[in-house]
# Entry
Amino acid sequence: MLEAANIPLHDVFTVANSFSQAVPRVPAVIDSLHIEWSGITKTLQFSDATDQFAGYFLENSATIEVTVTTPPSPGLHGFRFVSAATTASHFAQVGHDHNGSFFPG
# Structure
């Protein structure tokens, strides 16, 4: 489970905008975030000495509840997103990896 609240960030409104330095960033806040993973469907463990990458991963599903606010600012009315009750994913993956100087080998 992951829970977080009051996380400041910048809103750029679209994924494409996030790659552009020309798009102004607008202050926003993740008011609350709750993610719960469940139902492991597959595990994957591997090690690649050539690319110096090793990892252990679990495939499962997750439910997500989030509230995000972009306060009003000059020229913008502001925005508030509240997930509809709970959003369920059909695929989620969690794990850990070791690479580069942290590669075990």
About this structure: The mean pLDDT is 86. The CA atoms of residues 48 and 95 lie 16 Å apart. The chain has one helix and six strands.
